[in-house]
Design goal:
A hairpin with a 2-residue loop joins strand 6 and strand 7. The chain folds into two domains: about 35 residues; about 190 residues, Glutaredoxin (3-Layer(aba) Sandwich), CATH 3.40.30. The chain is an alpha+beta fold. A five-stranded mixed β-sheet has the order 2-4-3-6-7. It is built from nine helices and seven strands, in the order H-E-E-E-H-H-E-H-H-H-H-H-E-E-E-H. The longest helix is centred in the first third of the chain and has 37 residues.
Length: about 250
């Protein structure tokens, strides 16, 4: 074998190694980009900040191509959670949300109207809301107030009023998380505007009567493997992108 042949072989070997190294870097970059996109869709539990997705139009939000629907093994029983729609509807939508979660507010604004029109009002599905409170004290306060409203059959009206208040904060360019707007005075005023028994509501709120149920929701979250909000399940299958109505339509016929 000629010396030039050996040099050519060594050159080819170095080129192959470089190509393999570049492939690893490129592959890792693609994987990292996918993880960033996936993590930007919802508020991740246990972190102190909200991940911001590129753009605000839900139709432009992406999801990782490798994501597959996952079936939860527990935590999705209705129990004492509030139900919207016909209790005997064939399909069940379960949402885990925090009243201060920015993306939960966006979900309420963008997706709730579609879900209610397409699935709830048509009798195809019922919706269940399980309140989480991990962002701060105002999340806990809102959850307890909503539980007291549930006792008087006004949960969903109260739910909508809280998210409307949060949306107003965002529209005004304010920080909606722990901004001081979700107060006892606001809750009492909301209860009064909804025609509730204010004395009964206030006693319930002051006594934190809904705390046990809030604890149950937290346990349900862990059992269902929920890692961020909003997280939505349809008939036990997690919707990978809660802002994509077609993923609901694929299950709810």
């Amino acid at each position: 074998m000629r010396m030039s042949d050996n040099n050519e072989m060594r050159a080819e070997s170095r080129l192959e190694k470089a190509m393999k190294s570049d492939a690893v870097v490129i592959g890792g970059s693609i994987l990292l980009a996918g993880l960033i996109i996936a993590g930007s869709i919802f508020y991740v539990l246990g972190r102190g900040t909200t991940a911001v997705a590129p753009g605000t139009d839900s139709s432009t939000q992406q999801q990782p191509s490798a994501a597959q629907p996952t079936k939860a093994t527990g935590g999705l029983e209705i129990g004492q959670a509030p139900v919207l729609g016909d209790a005997n509807a064939p399909h069940t939508i379960v949402e885990f949300g925090d009243f201060q979660c920015v993306y939960c507010t966006k979900f309420h604004t963008d997706m709730d109207p579609l879900i209610r029109t397409d699935f709830i009002q048509t009798g195809k599905a019922k919706m269940v809301f399980k309140t989480l409170a991990f962002i701060g004290p105002e999340s806990t306060a809102a959850g307890l107030a909503a539980e007291c409203a549930k006792d008087q059959g006004k949960f969903w009206d109260f739910h909508d009023a809280i998210y409307k208040a949060e949306q107003a904060e965002e529209n005004a360019g304010k920080q909606s998380e722990n901004s001081g707007n979700l107060t006892k005075a606001f809750f009492v005023q909301t209860a009064q505007s909804l025609g509730m028994d204010v004395n009964k509501f206030t006693t319930c709120y002051d006594n934190k009567d809904g705390q046990a149920q809030m604890t149950q929701y937290s346990q349900d979250m862990q059992a269902a493997g929920v890692q961020g909000t909003p997280t939505v399940f349809v008939d036990g299958t997690q919707i990978q992108n809660p802002f994509d109505i077609t993923q609901y339509q694929a299950i709810i016929k």
